[in-house]
Amino acid sequence: MNHLDPSALLDQLMFTPNKVACNIFGMNGDLIAAVTAEYDRTARKLHSLHRALVALKADGPPRTRRKMSAKSRRKISAAQKRRWAKVKRT
Description:
By secondary structure, this protein is mainly α. It has helices at about 5-15, 20-25, 30-55, 70-90. It has a domain at about 1-60.
């Protein structure tokens, strides 16, 4: 097997038919299948990560705080004061 740098091997594989490239470098035909399978696995993982990111970002528009009327705030305040008065008595 000839020892070439990976970029030269990749160039050779890209620009020659698969069988010729495998014969030149003394590789069996399973290399192309293995590289293709790894590419597919990586593409699926990348797609899953992309979907997860989209799901995390898909919160929708930022929520605005609900405004409470002054009357409602007074009611809540009065109820809390009654609760504290009851605790202080006991």
